[in-house]
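Action item from last week, closing it out:
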Amino acid sequence: MQKKLLVVLGTFFFLLSFRGFALDGDEARPLADIEKELKVWGTDILTHDSIEYKIALNERFIQRLKTVLKRADSYDYPFDSLITVSRISPADNSFRIFTWQIVDKEKNCRYYGIIQRKHFFGKNQHRIIVTELRDNVDYNVALESTPLTKGEWFGAIYYKPRYSDYGVLTYTGTFFRQKALTPGLKKEKVKFYVLLGWNGHDNATQYKVIDVIIFPREDSSKIYFGAPIFYAGTGIPKHRIIFEYSDNANFSCNQAFIEGKKSKKKKLAIVFDHLAKSNKTNPTSNSWDYGADGSYDALRFVNRYHDQRKGFFVFQKNVTVYDPSLKKYDPKVIQKQYEEEAKRLKQYNLDLKKNKPKSDPNSNNNSTNKPK
């Protein structure tokens, strides 16, 4: 008890010592100077031994970063040295999203984020809007079919997809809504900003998530997470896809090239490992026993109409992943990789499917070809 009190007091006096320069004057100080200090804080938030210290310092980090991101000159500043913070944006540069975590070895990991975006009003006029995100939504089965607001964020560290120059994937769709004053439907275009993220959760389970962020035109203060555009094997669309798997297993979810269903033309899709149950004979086993079984599934965006909407993702099972950089491959190398994969999965009591994967360049002569 005495030791814990000393840690709390030490944290208090440490943070108090920063009052003189942490926030005062950040509206005018050089961004490079502020970035250096935020880098030190960010490292401590991730690696320090005291959870009390990390939580207290994180609150200061959030407030300070929000203050800085409200500055007009910060919008195009890269913040490259903040290596503990993910920073991604879409091709149109309409927003940036910063995400990071606090690792609590005794409890669940905690996730935080900040969205910085430009809101345009009038001709060539805009203001910067900064929105804080906190991970306060627990996973449940219904979460995949539930739209969320900025106050109901399912926390994750978002990462840049492969074969993309940008961290946020952008898809354009169309939907129909009821007209306000007259009968009939109004057709509107919408941009779906798709995010790929990872959540370490706890010592037993981790998640990967495919989510969508939407900024409605009618109200600039609102942010929505999720959209009914994922048809994952059922006729009812999901708002997001969440994969729950063992903390001891590897699971990849990334962008990759696959063959079309009706043609041999290679197309980009969101590709992920197929999860399979462990073959343990444990009556109490649960979802944390799931891991990759060596095959891949995908979500492919199609630009056609369905349910008064144009543009959505369809599920495709057992896809063949293709790496365009590999024009030649050796089937013997493919076989060796298959055997190594089977050996690795055996450590987790998982079995590859009876049918071996096709001998295709995407079966990985190069380990970087595998979606992560």
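Closing note: Residues 301 and 355 are 27 Å apart (CA to CA).
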